Amino acid sequence: MKTQFNITSMKWDLERYASREDFATALQGFDGVELMDYGDDISTIIPEEKVIGVHMLCPYHWLDFWNGDLERCIREYSTLERVYQTFGGTDRQALVDAFLRDWNRACAHQAEYAVYHISDVTCMECLTGEYAHTDEEVIDAVCELINQALPATAEGPWLLLENLWYPGLTFTRPEMTRRLLEGIHYPKTGFMLDTGHLMHTDLELNSQEEAVAYIHRCLDQHGELCEHIRGIHLNQSLTGAYRKQLMQKPPELSADYNKRMGEIYTCVFRMDQHKPFICAGVWELIQRIHPDYLTYEFISNNREEHMEMLRQQRQALQER
C-alpha cells in the first residue's frame, strides 16, 4: 500500500514550501502525493516521481449540458455565453475533450492512477438535497462520456471513480456501483472510496465511531464489489446537523454568478470538512479494504495546520 497526501498545483498550495528540499521534509514517511493539476508548473517544488496519483478536475454540474438542456444550464450559469465558456465548447465533445486534457496530464506525470468524481448537482440542489436527476441518469451518462474518451483498447493509469453524496456514485446502492463498473469499457477501472463523502449519506451520524460502523455496513452490502476499491481518501466530517439545517432553510443565493459560487463554496466547505479520521477502528477499516493507495485528504488553511493534521492521522494509525 502506497501512502500519500493531497496537494494542488495552485500557487497558494505550492508557496507553502520554499524549495524541493523543503517539500521533501513534509514528504518524510509518505510515498508521494495525489496532485490536483490545474496546469501550473510544479517542477520547482514537487518531483515528478513523487506524483503517484492525479485528481482530475471534475465539473460539478454537467449532465444538463450533456443532455443539451440549455435552459437549465442558463438557469445555473446565468447566461448562454457563460455556459459555453464554462464547458469550453457548445456540445458534448467539450466535456469529452476536458476529460481527455486531464487524463493526458495524469499520463504526462506517469501517475499510477487518476481520480474522477461521479456526480452531478446544481447550486441549489447542493443546499436543498432535492435533485432533478437520478443516480441512474448520472451513471449512464458518465459511462457514455468516459467510453467516448477511453475506449476499451486505451492504455494508461488506473481510473478510480470517487463517491460523493449527490446523484451518481454514492456507494450506498450496490446495484448502482455495479452498473457504473460494468458500464465503463476501460479495463483498468476501480473505485476511490472517500470515507468523509460516505459519511454525508447518513445525516444521523454523531461520532467517528458511528461513522466507522456505518462504512462497514456499506461495505457489507457491497460484498465482492469491495474488491474493486483500489484507493481510499481518508478523512472525516460529521456535519449532518448542518446539512439538515441547510435543507430546512436554504440561504438566499446572490443573482450574480461569481458571488453565488462563493456563497456555495462557503457552505460546501462547512459540509465537507476533510478532517483527520482518528478514532479506534479506522486502521481495521483500512485493513479490511486493503487498498493499493491510501491518501490522507485534508483541507487546511496553511502549512502548519496541514502538518498537524497529517501528524494526527499518522499517530492515530500507529497507535492501533
Would you mind describing this structure in some detail?
There is one protein chain. With 320 residues, this protein is α/β, with parallel strands linked by helices. Helices cover 46% and strands 13% of the residues. The chain has 15 helices and 8 strands. It has helices spanning 11-14, 20-26, 63-66, 70-77, 80-87, 93-108, 123-128, 135-149, 174-183, 195-199, 208-222, 240-248, 257-271, 282-289, 303-318; strands at 2-8, 32-36, 51-55, 113-117, 158-162, 189-194, 229-234, 293-296. It has an 8-stranded parallel barrel with strand order 1-2-3-4-5-6-7-8. Strand 5, helix 9 and strand 6 (189-194) form a beta-alpha-beta unit. Helix 6 (93-108) packs across helix 8 (135-149) and helix 8 packs parallel to helix 9. The longest helix is centred in the first third of the chain and has 16 residues, at 93-108. The radius of gyration is 19 Å and the shape is globular. The model has no long low-confidence stretch (mean pLDDT 96).
